[in-house]
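Hey, I'm writing a tutorial for new members on how sequence and structure tokens pair up, and I'd like a real worked example in the thread rather than a made-up one. If someone can provide the structure for the chain below, I'll link this post from the tutorial.
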Amino acid sequence: MKELFVKLKEAECDVEGALARFLDDEELYEQFYGELLNDEAFGKLGLALEERRISDAFEYAHTLKGIIGNMGLTPLFETVCDIVEPLRIGSLDGVMVKYYELLKQKEYFSQFI
């Protein structure tokens, strides 16, 4: 198993489930992993939050939630869920703190590639 997957397992990610969704294509997973960590939705989410555009922020966060969930990145998934749920009901309470946590996690996971 490649070093990326070893590191992801150590970070408590669902590597087996993710690879099953990727039909055990490790190279394809690695490609999507790199693309996810560079996805502009992270920045657009932050801008929408700063501008208090809750509907837009929800769309960006919900999109990230789906991608991150499919990739089995459990720590990121849990954090983005903590962003999506308040936004779903039109609230920004605690969302910026969770957004900054998400960015720190993204930076940590970026070290794996």
